[in-house]
Amino acid sequence: MRIDILSVVPQLLESPFNHSIIKRARAKNIVEIYVHDIREFSASRHKQVDDYQYGGNSGMVLMIQPIYDAILHLKSQREYDSIIYTSPDGELLTQKKSNYLSVQTNIIILCGHYKGIDHRIREHLITEEISIGDYVLSGGELAAAVITDSIVRLLPGAISDETSALSDSFQDDLLAAPVYTRPAEFNGWSVPEILLSGNFKKIEQWQMEQSLIRTAKLRPNLLSDKSADE
Ligand code: ADE
Description:
Blueprint: E1 2-7, H1 20-27, E2 32-37, E3 50-52, E4 60-62, H2 64-75, E5 82-92, H3 95-102, E6 106-111, H4 119-124, E7 128-131, H5 141-152, H6 162-166, E8 185-186, E9 189-190, H7 200-218, H8 220-229
Parallel strand pairs: 1-2, 1-6, 5-6, 5-7
Antiparallel strand pairs: 3-4, 8-9
Helix pairs in contact: 3-5, 7-8
Adenine (ADE) binds at residues 86-88, 112, 131-133, 135-137, 140, 143.
């Protein structure tokens, strides 16, 4: 899989893809990630990328030309399955959406900034708009990092224990069961007995019960959404 990210602040994305699971997935060629500076595509002498908005409201808007040229440049080299724009008014990112994106081959993620981007880009070039939550970030870079991370960890081989991505919270619309490691007792707080029993069938049953209990308590909407799906 290949992910191309377009940003006016590419420095914000220097770290998230160079550690841990994503770093290893890149080293193993499971994913290629490229962060492009939109400014490099600006045709203006001063590499301008934003401008005042028509209509007189305050706040700068990312200009159409540099983004248009950046996307066309990428599209001239390969076909893209999705061209995503990160925005608080997009569709909320869910595990289902990440699963869907993780089976694609080439993706562009365009990071929004300031007051937004010239709307003609959204109308004519963007195929999906994604929000990572109902709050406003200063820019789309952190959202692009979140989207990328949630996709990459699903790619075959990205996580060494294959079953571990499948047992994540949300993977079957349930929160994950609690996990523990040694020591079995600390400060008088003990690990649930069942986990030390060696009875894997019983342990699995306990984990499923815990998932259901935690989901019903913390995110009951997941259970009602699930029965509505069925
Ligand atoms: N840009 C600003 N806020 C955002 C959000 N919540 N999700 C995605 N992109 C954003």
